[in-house]
Amino acid sequence: MFLLKSIPKVDKFIENEKFDGLCTPLIVSFTQEVLQNLRENILNNSVDSFSEDELVKRVLQKYEELINPSLKKLINATGVIVHTNLGRSLIDEKTFDKVKTIATSYNNLEYDTAKGKRGERYSHISKVICKLLGCEDVLIVNNNASAVFLILNTFAKKKEVIVSRGELVEIGGSFRVPDVMRDSGAKLIEVGATNKTHLRDYENAINNKTSMLMKVHKSNYSIEGFSSEVEFKELIKLAKENDVIDYYDMGSGHLIDLPYGLDQYEPSVLKYMQENPSLLSFSGDKLLGSVQAGIIVGKKEYIAKLKKNQLLRMLRVDKITLAILEENIKSILLGQIDDIPTLKMLFSSTDELRENALTLQDAIADIAECEIIDTKTVIGGGTTPNRTIPTVALSVKIKNYKQNKMEKLFRQRDIIGRIEDDKFLLDFRTIQKDDIAQIIDAAKEISDV
């Protein structure tokens, strides 16, 4: 009973000088939580003493945990360029500075300054994308999953969509093509076998209820060996002959020629636009290297129908997404790929990576055992499944810490590396030059632990 009576009153407790200048309602709320928790612990005999300083410390800790940003900068030393868990593609600082004025000012998002009346938000991006791809029109939604759903709901509700069994994809977060198709109102018609689908399979499935021939990029997996699939250009021809829509969900379709022979594994938007398709969709934050967005390109008549779907109001993007995406598309159009960090990292030579690894090795040689290793990594984000690219990593061992301990110690300092062959590696395919100083400081701090 003595301990219970010793619990301070809320109104007196919050007068502590350490709470000066802080948000009083939050301090009151956290104080009530801390004191209630203390009361319960006393009653169940798990606490036999406490101090007011200790209680103040708990309240301040809860306050800081709430006020401090949950999202924070990390150093990606995994080597995975499009790392879904680490925010996928980076935005170049110069690009972000250009967009900052738009974000902090009133702007012409839906205002036509020439006509002095309401305009269309998608007009800002359509000109530059249409010039790059040679398409008739473009529509931007908040991600490629939204693009798939909007297209199916607009053109195939209560109608049939033909898809190869080998392309019934499930990607991260249990996003499954069959489930999306069902929820959109479309009826899935599976054709072919898992490993082999022929053009005749599509031909035999077409009837008067068919709305669309759909092709889906195999993100996160590949089918090899005794296998075959129908080229999209063949589906385009077949769709036109039967007066139905052809649509390719390209996933992470790219807009430039990829290095390391990766073009043969990843669909090129530029290549397929030459075939004059009805509709294509792809992600903005994968191999394009921009913000999260679903980019739909194709024939003007179909884009116009998509814009009239009431779902678009829920899926549309804001001014910041449009502004950054426009800047990135301009960079690609002008061949300035160094302005897009994802592409810059992808095209960096192993000689450049080795030079950066040497810089770090020399800086921490007196406190760590280091070895420069030529190895492989993946691009990530569901792109180029089962394909690797060359990279250079630095194995780091401080004191006698094992690789799991090393990984944890660096992770606690916001540096995310990887373990390979029982070694903790910092992969320079994704480490930025500006990151090296922070890694040096972290290594020195770990050596002093």
From TrEMBL:
GO CC term (a single one)? cytoplasm
Quote the catalytic activity from the record.
Answer: L-seryl-tRNA(Sec) + selenophosphate + H(+) = L-selenocysteinyl-tRNA(Sec) + phosphate
Where primarily located? cytoplasm
Q: Which EC class, in a word?
A: transferase
> Protein name, please?
L-seryl-tRNA(Sec) selenium transferase
Give the protein's biological function: Converts seryl-tRNA(Sec) to selenocysteinyl-tRNA(Sec) required for selenoprotein biosynthesis.
Alphabetical keyword list: Cytoplasm, Protein biosynthesis, Pyridoxal phosphate, Selenium, Transferase
Question: Which SUPFAM superfamilies is this protein grouped with?
Answer: PLP-dependent transferases
HAMAP family documented for this protein: SelA
Which cofactor does the UniProt annotation name? pyridoxal 5'-phosphate
Q: Which pathway does the UniProt entry assign to this protein?
A: Aminoacyl-tRNA biosynthesis; selenocysteinyl-tRNA(Sec) biosynthesis; selenocysteinyl-tRNA(Sec) from L-seryl-tRNA(Sec) (bacterial route): step 1/1
Q: What GO molecular function annotations does the UniProt record carry, in alphabetical order?
A: L-seryl-tRNA(Sec) selenium transferase activity
- Using the record's annotations, give every residue carrying the modification N6-(pyridoxal phosphate)lysine: 286
Q: Which InterPro entries match?
A: PyrdxlP-dep_Trfase, PyrdxlP-dep_Trfase_major, SelA-like, SelA_trans
What GO biological process, any one, is recorded here? selenocysteine incorporation
Localisation: Cytoplasm
Gene3D superfamilies from the UniProt entry: 3.90.1150.180, Type I PLP-dependent aspartate aminotransferase-like (Major domain)
Q: Which family does it belong to?
A: Belongs to the SelA family.
Q: What is its EC number?
A: 2.9.1.1
Task: Answer whether the UniProt record assigns the keyword NAD to this protein.
Answer: no
The protein's organism comes out as: Sulfurimonas gotlandica (strain DSM 19862 / JCM 16533 / GD1)
Q: Which gene encodes it?
A: selA
